[in-house]
Amino acid sequence: MDIERRLLDYFAPFRRTAWLPLVLEQDGPAWASKFGGAAFLPEGESHPICPNCGRPLQLLLQLDVANLPEPQCWGADGLVQLFDCTNVDAKCESKCQAFAPGSRSVVARRVAADTPGGASSASIEHALAPKHIVEWSFADDYPDFEEPVSRQFGEQLTVDEFYAWIDNGLTLVGEKLGGWPAWVQGADRPPCPKCSRGMEAIFQIDSNDLVDLMWGDVGVAHLFQCGEHPDELAFTWECH
Ligand SMILES: [Zn+2]
Ligand SMILES: [Zn+2]
Description:
The protein contains 4 helices and 12 strands, in the order αβββββαβββααββββ. The chain has helices at 3-11, 92-95, 151-155, 159-167, and strands at residues 16-24, 34-35, 40-42, 58-64, 79-84, 106-111, 117-119, 131-141, 176-178, 200-206, 220-225, 233-238.
């Protein structure tokens, strides 16, 4: 039996649906799901600033939770926002260890539904091309070979089969909501600061795909959320 057939047979019980964003190459309304573009800012709040370089953070991702295809984020409504400093001159990424949870140059937060406010007018250097997420398609997604649930399957394989699996895995790369995270180094879910349980990856951002940024050496980034404590969000990336 070929490796793909065996993978599908073994991993069928672990199948999840991943939602893939379809975008218009333009900014959307302030309260919308998008990559880049103008972030929604609550009334009276200023745009988040990088503590290392003092410049406004770049909006990487904003999710309008009530209009997601499935409740893949916890908290039912409101916005999820992810900001990062993309200023290469000041080396904010390395100085603030932007790849690790709780980095000073990353803001991952929720904005409550019906919060008054509007689009941020902050001017971002080297701003990402804005992309308004207008629709979602879906696809089957399966665990990465790094997942604990994959270990038993891996033990049944020869070395050649194992490498065939790594090359032809069933975990979706690219941007996706939900599904199984594609890991580069290991299944590393940051612990929730409130309950210490591993948080779930709710969104994956790949290198140089819909978001034109490279995570280290062609890495993959994930936004995590605690199912028990929806205000606890974390952002990490792994690279080669
Ligand atoms: Zn900075
Ligand atoms: Zn928690």
